[in-house]
Amino acid sequence: MSTAISTSAPASSPATAAPSALTRLRWWVCDSWVMTKRNMTHVVREPEEVVIYFTLPIMFVLVFGYVFGSGMAVPGASSDSAYREFLLPGVFVMTMLYGLGATASGIAFDVGRGVVDRFRSMPVTRSALVTGRSLADLLRALLEMTVLVVCGLLVGWQWHRGIGNALLAVGLILLLRIALTWMGILLGLIVPNPDLVAVIVFPTAFPLTAVSNVFVAPELMPGWLGAVSEWNPLSATVGAIRELFGNPGLGGSSWVAEHALVMAVVWPLLMLAIFVPLSVWRYQRLSR
Amino acid sequence: MTNEFAVVAEGLHKRYGRSCALDGVDLTVPRGTVHGLLGPNGAGKTTAVRILATLLRFDAGRAEVAGFDVQREPERVRARIGLTGQYAAVDEVLSGRQNLIMFARLFHLSPRAARARADELLEQFDLVDAAGKSAAQYSGGMRRRLDLAASLILAPDVLFLDEPTTGLDPRSRNGVWDGVRSLVAGGTTVLLTTQYLEEADQLADRISVIDTGRVVAEGTSDELKSQIGGDRIEVVVRDAADLASAAHVVEAVGGGAVHTDPDTRRVSSPVRDRVEALGDVVQRLREAGIVAEDIGVRRPSLDEAFLALTGHRAEEEVAA
Q1: Using CA of residue B168, residue B170, residue B171, residue B175, what is the dihedral sign?
Q2: Domain of A130, in residue numbers
Q3: Contact criterion met (CB < 8 Å) for A12 and B80
Q4: What is the pLDDT of residues B129-154, one digit of tens each?
Q5: Which CATH architecture has domain B5-225?
Q6: Is residue A46 assigned to a domain?
Q7: Is residue A178 part of a domain?
Q8: How many helices (H) and strands (E) does chain B have?
Q9: End-to-end CA separation in angstroms for chain A
């Protein structure tokens, strides 16, 4: 710092009138976009992290699809690629669940390192940090879906009921992802450091997918376990998208299993109704 | 904005459960000056800064920064302040330049103005060569400079520096000090917390000594020093084993409380008549066979002032 620091900086915003509602809205959009771009830049500058998040689902497709899949039964189907057709919608949803870990550790890192404090000491719209994060996560989920769809097509998975239904299925997947993002935001605000996120997320995420219809149809599980699996929110989305993609494995005669399409909307909305207010409350508590 | 004080705090109280973080802090900082908040860890310095920077609510009192009430108009305060905390709060994945552009955009500069300002700041903080590197690859000093640059995007009216040089090597520390001085020359008001007496002595026009949530003394460095009395005699012994007997000699001559520092083999005590005391100490040391490396009479250091004001050393942790 040999040179003197000039104060020829742009003047601070006018001291007089408070910004109008329109200006506030414009700032909110603008700030959220800057935050979104920030998170997307992370993907570009640090692709390793994303690659890890991609490798895991692809590994599941290969290991379950070819190694365990040969011994897996799919109710009502018998062809060679039936299990892989059954598996792919499960892996789509599983990937959304694991994405929660990236959300939570990103937020925890920002809180722990004082980056959030810096944002909070600036005239930034306060909600932009989280709106930017969830938008970036959504874009990232689209990227993940693209890679997984290509991977699925390569192993013999496809959609059978037209592009409209297929897009609707993708919509349901993204809806679940938004709900999971808010769960991740809350987790990130609660844990004291980012390392703890992985310790919490990964050991809980796998059993959560195992006790659902992601890998095995619940009607093939012991009675009580099958019931738990059917009520697992992940199962609703998986069941609904299997239906929309026309993939095999639809089954179960319970109420939840028969109403998978409705529940695939209800569960995420319920999660949002819980996690959005809790996250806001937790964020405001940073000022305590 | 015609207010002559950039920071005004009156009777700030902040409680965490049953413990009291701030117990009625008063503070007035005239525009364009540097004010030091000096105190040990846990004294409440950071709490005070976080309150003034709108990060923390408080329980009682009033605070005004850059002419706006902190509680009623926090957004207007935020548009006029910069904050550099104890951690370098930058995005570690983004490059230095990307960080500055992002922060500038969040201060609502246009994309073009944000890029221009980022380049200007990179130049001023000697970060041009590292502009494209991730902040994670920066050294501690570079990261702190980037952090400081991020606080200066809008040339804030008031800059809060929370222990800006903790953990820095002396060269980087001098760099930060120079930066602060030239900012103040440009009209910025700085509120600085530190546990280093030297830092407060070097930078601050006025100092508030803060201890267990209260301001225990306030004044210029000279005022604080004279508040605890006048001259001190100081002896540095060659052999650390002589410290105790040297302390004895100094006490006999000075008659006041003796301060012994084993690390520097230094013994000091207040004296009334400096010339007479100097002669006495020299003679008595010789009689006792103690070899002194240095003997002198000087004004008290801020460290000693702090000890006298609070009853403990500045760099000690305060037991909770």
Answers
A1: positive
A2: 40-287
A3: yes
A4: 999 999 999 988 888 889 989 998 98
A5: 3-Layer(aba) Sandwich (3.40)
A6: yes
A7: yes
A8: 11, 14
A9: 36
C-alpha of A164 from chain center: 22
Does some domain include residue A28? Answer: no
Q: Do the domain assignments include residue A125? A: yes
- Nearest-angstrom CA–CA distance, B90 and B284: 58
What pLDDT is recorded for position A248? 87
- The domain locations on chain B are 5-225, 231-298
Number of domains in chain A: 1
Task: Calculate how close chain B gets to A84, using CA atoms only, in Å.
Answer: 37
Average pLDDT value for chain B: 87
The answer to which of B35-39, B197-201, B251-255, B301-305 has the lowest mean pLDDT is: B301-305
Task: Note whether A7 contacts B186, CB cutoff 8 Å.
Answer: yes
DSSP letters for A217-275: -GGGS-HHHHHHHHHSHHHHHHHHHHHHHT-S-----SHHHHTHHHHHHHHHHHHHHHH
Q: Which range in A22-26, A163-167, B271-275 is most confidently predicted, on average pLDDT?
A: A163-167
Angle at CA B209, nearest 5°, toward B192 and B193? 15
Distance from CA of B118 to the nearest CA of A (A): 10
Task: Give B139 to chain A, closest Cα distance, Å.
Answer: 15
pLDDT higher than threshold 70 for residue A43:
yes
ipTM for the complex?
0.84
Task: Give A-chain residues touching B78 at CB under 8 angstroms.
Answer: 121-123
Tokens representing residue B138 in the block? 């920066």
Q: Write out residues 160-199 of A within 8 Å (CB-CB) of B.
A: none
- CA pair distance B80, B70, nearest whole angstrom: 11
Residue A260 CA to residue A238 CA, distance in Å, equals 8
CB-based contact, A119 to chain B, within 8 Å:
yes
> Do residues B42 and B314 lie in contact, with contact meaning Cβ atoms separated by under 8 Å?
no
Q: Is the pLDDT of residue A75 over 80?
A: no
Higher pLDDT, B19 or A180: A180
DSSP code of B135?
Answer: G
Considering the domain delimited by B231-298, tell me its CATH architecture: 2-Layer Sandwich (3.30)
Instruction: Name the one residue in this structure whose structure tokens are 């959220």.
Output: A32
In Å, how far are A266, A272, B236, B242 from A183, measured between CA atoms?
16, 8, 63, 66
